[in-house]
Amino acid sequence: MAHKKKLPLDPVTVTIESLSHDGRGVTHVNGKVVFIDEALPGETLEFIYTDSRKDYAEGKVATLLTRSEHRVDPACPHFGVCGGCSFQHVDDAEQIKFKEALLQDQFRRIGKLEIPQIWEALTGPHWGYRRKARMGVKWVAKKGRVLVGFRERRNPFLAEIDSCKVMYPLVGENLPALGEMIAGLSIKDKIPQIEVAIGDRDVVLAFRVLEPPTDADKQRMREFGRQHNLSICLQPKGPDTIVPLDGEPEVVPSYALADQGVTFNFRPAMFTQVNYDINQKMVSRALAALELTKDDRVLDLFCGLGNFTLPLATLAGQVVGVEGDLPLVKHARENARLNQLDNVEFHVADLSKDVKELPWCKQKFSKVLLDPSRAGAAEVLHNFKHWQPERIVYVSCNPSTLARDAGILVNERGYKLVKAGVMDMFPQTAHVESIALFVKK
């Protein structure tokens, strides 16, 4: 049996050289790269090893010897333990600069491209912005309490927190009360997670339950919901099994995009953008960049429940949305009817597969919008030879796959990169949401 190599115990003094893509300080010790949590470029510090591998090591700050001008005191007392945030020690302006620099670096390194023009960053509220989350729940018998929140940093255990500063306050400031309510249930150890879905008016908490709650449990949950103005639902199995408590009306959360005059209903487990302020600005920027007219036929790939598709339909002649998740597509169609938009159609297709024989794919489109998952859109890009759109807007939650796909569009598909920029969808984290515009050469 192999024994894990013991880590050095004594603090090591280093100067931080740069930041990694996930926001950790980067330095070298005896030629090996070391990633250090909460360390900023230019700072000299003592760190303690937390892990050591063949090619790299990890550490945490023991003593800060010099302090970066961009360092601030974290607003949350749980920062450093809870893994939800990684950037609270960095001032807001510098967070944006880091994300812009990372985007440019990824384009250079992976896409072999320079960004000709950096879009002004889209920014919004830095706290209380998060309206969608999956929170962990854990009954800890030794402490006699229920933990509700997120996992510890680089650890599978739930962090012991009593608030979350980035969560919408009605939920983020009521975690202890929520934990106390669950601790009084007969199934307190049979609730692994809560799906949080917050609309413009409604807050829905869907409890994943491994065993059915008793009538007394349901009454306790019902009273808690009324006291805190929350709608509590039960999820006995998969996401499509979410139902209200007995006798309670189904609350369907919704959000509106005021600039485009469209409203979206969604079910609690469905994907929606977590930051409504940035989402509105993002949609408006994408529509402006596409320069839409009633003569345009627009293709919206990875369309979800129509977050871009329906706004596109308010300006374009015809819009086709394509998404791999059937429940999302059904909901998108319902939302099109809700908004009385009859110039839009939706199709279900796995865009990681060859789709060229599908009828919608054989059509022509003058503009295309893409908003893929972290895996990017490489598999669908060869279809651009057929579509030949004049303009492409690519929205991304992963700058490395955006850079890769940008390289394909520019170097293989005959497009010119016009501009790209970041959108601060997740302040206080190293997560980078970005957008890029391409035009036909």
Describe this structure in words.
- The protein has helices at residues 92-109, 169-172, 175-183, 215-228, 276-290, 309-313, 326-338, 384-387, 399-411, and strands spanning 12-15, 18-19, 25-29, 32-37, 44-52, 56-64, 132-140, 145-149, 193-198, 203-208, 231-235, 243-244, 254-257, 262-265, 297-301, 318-323, 344-348, 367-370, 391-396, 415-423, 433-440.
- It is of the alpha/beta class and 441 residues long.
- Helix content is 22%, strand content 27%.
- The chain has nine helices and 21 strands.
- The strands form four sheets. The chain has a seven-stranded mixed sheet, with helices on both faces. A six-stranded mixed sheet has the order 1-5-6-4-3-2, with no helix packed on it.
- The longest helix is centred in the N-terminal third of the chain and has 18 residues, at 92-109.
What can be said about this structure in brief?
With 441 residues, this protein is α/β, with parallel strands linked by helices. It has helices at 92-109, 169-172, 175-183, 215-228, 276-290, 309-313, 326-338, 384-387, 399-411, and strands at 12-15, 18-19, 25-29, 32-37, 44-52, 56-64, 132-140, 145-149, 193-198, 203-208, 231-235, 243-244, 254-257, 262-265, 297-301, 318-323, 344-348, 367-370, 391-396, 415-423, 433-440. Strand 11 (231-235) and strand 12 form a beta hairpin.
